[in-house]
Design a protein that fits this description.
Length: 393
């Protein structure tokens, strides 16, 4: 196969789209591998300028319901995608890695057919679907009905936090299959800068898709409260396109925050914005349909630049933001609490500096992309050894 490196074993990543606009974490994970070559099996390519992928990529056939098709081989009735089958055979892939639970189900199908070990990575929303199945049956019924096959067919399940691990155990995934594997960041790109001598309003950054679980409406209302309480601050908002873009912009104007909110181009480099800011605000919530975060990558990136955070006590956030040490945590939708935190940190630059340093140290210890790539490849080694033992039995 063109582009294959014969010196490295291949791991095949199953994706729907390579890559969606906010999937920096996937791109970084896959390109950080050194001993394994990442082969991408997907149905759509997007954002190539943002994610310049140079390793082999195989486009499969599009059909109305990949998940529906995925369930059929459990009863022996699926014609597997010929392009993917050829790629898996030619590359002699040693491991299948399903990115998100939905693709993990498909990986389990191919793994069963080819005798390959399967790892499935969960990231948040895919767990929320299984936790609130009645709210997602129309769109994701194949995934929901395939939950047992997904857990049985995955040899390893990777999650971002203990909270996510506990959710999957409650859903029936064997705890023995689960390992916590955070999303890493490039700590050279997201590096700290001196902030002590900055003058002017406190610069607060918010980043993420314009969707409910990001909690931006609560963030803007908290900023409004904090300003009313005397805090001199401004917001730099780096949004990724989503369905709530127009309502959020209307809310900014309704609150009179227009002069105090800079809405950045989605293509703006977040590392630059974070280094130019003083504080990260991450007011995430559980959405009405059960959608929830894993551990927001933007929080990890911000911590890498030495930013303290004010955030919600939501999903895996407490595992990156230690309340009172590297930031301040409040209950979901607690706009008054968030505002209190903003006022407190706006008035105390020394506290911001201490918390920012603690945040950086936390990331150095736990979220370094290079160290996590070594750990991930060790998981692949163990799975390859498992496959060999199975073949010899």
């Amino acid at each position: 196969m063109s582009g294959q490196d014969p010196a490295r074993p291949a791991v095949a990543f199953l994706l729907g789209t390579a890559f969606s606009f906010t999937e920096t974490f996937l791109f970084n994970q896959m390109r950080s591998l050194t001993r394994y070559q990442a082969i991408t099996l997907c149905h759509r390519v997007a954002n190539e300028e943002r994610f310049p992928w140079t390793e082999p990529r195989i486009l499969g056939q599009r059909h109305p319901s990949r998940l529906g098709q995925a369930l059929r081989p459990l009863h022996g009735r699926l014609t597997l995608d010929p392009a993917w089958m050829q790629a898996l055979t030619e590359t002699r892939a040693t491991v299948l890695h399903g990115q998100f639970g939905t693709n993990g189900l498909i990986a389990a199908v191919y793994g069963k057919q080819l005798g390959l070990p399967v790892v499935t990575s969960f990231y948040g929303g895919d767990v929320g679907i299984l936790l609130e199945p009645q709210k997602h049956l129309r769109r994701y019924w194949h995934y929901i009905l395939g939950k047992r096959a997904l857990f049985e067919g995955s040899d390893l399940v990777l999650v971002l936090s203990t909270a996510m691990r506990d959710d999957l155990v409650r859903l029936g995934c064997p705890a023995s299959k689960i390992a916590i594997h955070p999303n890493g960041v490039d700590l050279e790109r997201f590096s700290p800068v001196p902030r002590a001598d900055r003058k002017g309003p406190l610069s607060v950054v918010m980043c993420g898709r314009e969707i409910e679980k990001k909690g931006f409406s609560h963030g803007f209302r908290a900023v409004h409260r904090a300003r009313a309480a005397g805090a001199d601050l401004r917001v730099r908002w780096l949004p990724a396109p989503g369905p709530l873009g127009a309502p959020l912009r209307a809310l900014i104007e309704e609150l009179g925050l227009g002069p105090h909110v800079e809405i950045l181009d989605p293509k703006t480099d977040p590392a630059v914005v974070m280094r130019e800011s003083d504080l990260m605000l991450c007011p995430s919530v559980t959405a009405a349909d059960g959608d929830k975060e894993g551990v927001p990558t933007v929080l990890v990136e911000a911590a890498g630049t030495g930013l303290p955070a004010i955030a919600s006590r939501h999903a895996g956030i407490p595992e990156i933001v230690v309340d009172g040490e590297s930031g301040l945590l409040y209950a979901e939708r607690d706009e008054e609490g968030l505002a209190t935190g903003l006022v407190r940190l706006a008035k105390d630059p020394a506290l911001r500096a201490r918390m920012g340093e603690a945040a950086r140290q936390k990331v150095l210890a736990t979220y370094d992309a290079r160290k996590l790539a070594i750990t991930l490849e060790a998981h692949y080694d163990a799975l390859a050894a498992l496959a060999l033992r199975r073949a010899l039995d």
